[in-house]
Amino acid sequence: MCDVASADAVADFFANSVKALGALDIVLNNAGVGSPLVPLEETDEADYDRLMGINLKGVWLCMRESLKTMSPAGSGHIINMASALSKTTFPGAGLYVASKYAVGGLTRNTAVEYGDSGIRINAICPGFIETPLLRESVPEEDRAHLASRHPMNRLGTPEDVAKAAMWLASDASSFVTGMLFSVDGGWTAI
How far is residue 65's CA from residue 155's CA, in Å, rounded to a whole number? Predict the structure, then answer.
């Protein structure tokens, strides 16, 4: 793990990973942060810098280092963690939504740019996932409300997201690139 908002830390992390592993076949960019739900006028530059630094700059830096290794090899899979909010909105989460829309755009554009390189680039767009962080930060009654916003009437599980990542990293998805893959219980379908 490293500070994904630091170009030097990311470069060192990838150099050490390649040295230890010999190659990079699959990279899952999963670092990200949320923010309190507040109207945009109540946000400040520090909020913006934190969200964009980790959620977007971190993905960009990790993709850049991944591609430096994968391009000469002519193969690889990059999976970025975006959000259901890469495809929709959520009042009070303007900066978070903007950061995740940007991850989706960067994913799709880079997938097209590297389309004939043998490298596949996709993003997973989870809905609300039942994690320890969610349980700690969102009261139970609010979690029930969030679950009800998903047509499947439940929160997702880490296993739901992991299964999508495993599929995207497998040969079963060999003709899939530039996809913003929803794992959101139908949230973005409504």
Answer: 33
170 token code pair? 């497998």
Active site (catalytic) residues: 96
* Angle at the Cα of 169 from the Cα atoms of 181 and 50, rounded to 5 degrees: 60
Assigned token pair, 62 = 């990790």
Judged on CB neighbours under 10 Å (0-12, 13-18, 19+), 42 is exposed
Instruction: From 124, 99, 102, 122, select the one nearest 111 (Cα to Cα).
Output: 122
Determine the Cα angle at 73 with ends 68 and 24, to 5°: 65
Class in CATH terms, 7-189: alpha beta
63-100 in b/e form (b: 16+ CB < 10 A) is bebbbebbeeeeebbbbbbbbbbbbbeeebbbbbbbbb
pLDDT tens for the chain, 190 residues long, are: 899 999 999 999 999 999 999 999 999 999 999 888 899 999 999 999 999 999 999 999 999 999 999 999 999 999 999 999 999 999 999 999 999 999 999 999 999 999 999 999 999 999 999 988 788 878 899 999 999 999 999 999 999 999 999 999 999 999 999 999 999 999 999 8
Side-chain-side CA neighbours of residue 42 (13 Å): 8
Cα–Cα dist 125/45, whole Å: 26
Q: In the chain, where are the structural domains located?
A: 7-189
